[in-house]
Amino acid sequence: MNQQSQVAVVGAGIMGEALISALISSGVNPELITISEKRADRSAELIAKYSIRQAPLAHNVAAADALLLVVKPQDMAGVLEEIKGTINPSAVVITFAAGKTISFISKGLGTGNPVVRVMPNTPTLVGAGMAAASMGAGVTDTQKQFVLEFLAATGKVIEVTEQLQDAVTATSGSGPAYFFAFVEAMVAGARDLGLSESDATTLTIQTIVGAARLLEESDKSPTTLRENVTSPNGTTAAALASFASSDLNSMVATAMKAARDRSQELA
């Protein structure tokens, strides 16, 4: 693959748009990106915004060197059935559907196309995503490089064996929702302490954003940063002791295991 490679994007929802933006940021010519999207108004919106193209699904996959499947897990089987008769046999197929294995995609196509499985997350939408990619049989070094490079434009990317994709789903795929739930709980707790909704929200969000930036930019571990803000017998120590008494570590581990198990069930 090279800068003249044709890229097909099937499914142009919010994540699909984020990936289109990443493709362009990584150097792909917008004129070589073609979407297939059932909603005509959505297609028109993205064409106007990114100067990409639109084509019927069968035509799109026949011409593509790389095919991004950005559809819901429950819709994947139908899409594979629809495209298997026309797909370019040398195209790399990149799937973003939670729980759907490389084997599932390969069997659904029955074409022998190389498959890459990716688990992104929603911060991809603001260029701060975390993606994990697993390479299937037959993926060339050039195709692998293409995938990793454009995913890097969404934030950060790592390569993992496919056996770890369910663990990735439970960590980074579902992880933003854990974070948002904690923010909701902090806002509610601040309101219970007498702060207004507006002040509680401002205090909580900026505290979380600042802590995340400190964690990213500091060379210190989360443990060290926690210890630095925790004076013996102080206010932070009292709050952390309450977390410990509720066995926060076990609660989080149990929740992540539930997410991992559900990802396995979706396969």
Automatic annotation (TrEMBL):
Annotated GO biological process: L-proline biosynthetic process
One MF term in the entry's GO annotations: pyrroline-5-carboxylate reductase activity
Keyword Ribosomal protein: no
Keywords linked to the UniProt accession: NADP, Oxidoreductase
Domain called Pyrroline-5-carboxylate reductase catalytic N-terminal: residue spans: 6-98
Domain Pyrroline-5-carboxylate reductase dimerisation as annotated: residue spans: 162-266
Family label: Belongs to the pyrroline-5-carboxylate reductase family.
Protein name: Unannotated protein
Organism annotation: freshwater metagenome
